[in-house]
């Protein structure tokens, strides 16, 4: 299935960063950055995703989502779990791909969303959430939910603007690897990969 046309011809693509900026300024703790992920970071995250059932926590306006869909096979599926209703609506409108399901909800309830879709477990969970901005209890809940949602041999892939999350990631995942920093991103980011 060729979905490149739909992904590249979204109406008013210049609007997404402006919407993201407005939401980020209104709720900096939830967004963690004032701009969507850059192209190099998005390509890196998509390259690290494995399998045909993917989850993206905090897809925002879709800068990473577009790359995930480009790398996903015709039988693949992607759940975008977003907390902000306005951002979720924008994402759904700008990426009309049948493989993408955008749902409103908290990342800590990931398993319930997968179950409601009848998808079972995910091969890869990709996180764009600013986890260091959350409380320790919130981070623990999200990381536990991500691990529980993975198939055996699956992977959790998150980007962060520092390495402060490493101890908590190591508490939840057996193997942890760091990629980066990705310098051509604003701000520079690290990609953390956890394996159960």
Automatic annotation (TrEMBL):
The keyword NADP does not apply. Pfam families: Methyltransf_12. The keyword S-adenosyl-L-methionine applies. SMART domains: rADc. Keywords: Methyltransferase, S-adenosyl-L-methionine, Transferase. One of its GO terms (molecular function) is rRNA (adenine-N6,N6-)-dimethyltransferase activity. Residues 44-187 form the Ribosomal RNA adenine methylase transferase N-terminal domain. This is Ribosomal RNA adenine methylase transferase N-terminal domain-containing protein. It comes from Mesoterricola sediminis. The lineage of its organism: Bacteria, Pseudomonadati, Acidobacteriota, Holophagae, Holophagales.
């Amino acid at each position: 299935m060729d979905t490149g046309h739909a992904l590249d011809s979204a109406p008013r693509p210049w609007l997404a960063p402006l919407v993201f900026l407005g939401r980020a300024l209104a709720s900096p703790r939830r967004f963690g950055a004032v701009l969507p992920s850059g192209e190099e970071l998005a390509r890196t995250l998509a390259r690290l995703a494995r399998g045909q059932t993917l989850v993206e926590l905090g897809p925002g306006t879709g800068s990473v989502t577009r790359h995930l869909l480009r790398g996903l096979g015709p039988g693949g599926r992607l759940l975008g779990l977003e907390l902000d209703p306005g951002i979720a609506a924008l994402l759904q409108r700008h990426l009309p791909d049948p493989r993408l399901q955008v749902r409103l909800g908290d990342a800590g309830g990931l398993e319930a969303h997968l179950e409601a879709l009848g998808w079972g477990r995910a091969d890869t969970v990709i996180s764009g959430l600013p986890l260091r901005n959350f409380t320790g209890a919130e981070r623990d809940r999200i990381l536990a939910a991500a691990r529980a949602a993975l198939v055996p041999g699956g992977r959790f892939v998150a980007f962060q603007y520092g390495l402060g999350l490493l101890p908590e990631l190591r508490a939840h995942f057996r193997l942890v690897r760091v990629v980066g920093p990705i310098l051509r991103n604003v701000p520079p980011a690290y990609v953390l990969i956890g394996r159960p």
